[in-house]
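As promised in the previous annual report, we have extended the structural survey to additional targets. Below is the entry for N-acetyltransferase domain-containing protein.
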Amino acid sequence: MHQKYLFQTNRLGFRVWQPSDLQPFGEINSDPETMRFFKNPYSLEETQAMMDRMARMFEEKGYCYFAVDLLENQELIGAIGLGWKTFEADFTPCVDIGWRISKNYWNKGLTTEGAKACLEFAKTLGIPEVFSYATSANLPSIQIMKKIGMHFYYEFELSELREFPHLKQCTLYHIDLLNQV
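The corresponding structure token record, generated without further manual editing, is:
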């Protein structure tokens, strides 16, 4: 079955979420290692709720954390894309970039490749700047932020994680899409 992709890289296809994604994305979201920098792994219901939020965001904004397929086998490997963040912070509301892919596909450059493509997509939408944040202990994600040209902005405590002392300290990165060097 050929998917209709919004945009592609050499190895990845980006698309809107479909009902058939629930099971494979649910497996990614329920994996304790993949979700170690989150409050807890997601249930199937939480995964469905996230997919529903992404569908609404795409309808409203023209972007979301996209479903990402590996083109060589059409397998859903996770989510990479843009989000709209409105929690209380100095830098919100803002567009952010984020990712979550199956651990089977870590350390292959796929997240970096996909995140770069999402920044290019953001440019086509006229988005002037993009932020990204992660728990300060999430060094793999912070490394990706650096690889895609983002710059350290500051550290902050995420109010949503106040009850999780090991997660609440976050590192914020930023990229100015209008004045890139």
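The chain has one domain: 7-176. The longest strand covers residues 75-85. These points will be discussed at the next consortium meeting with the crystallography subgroup.
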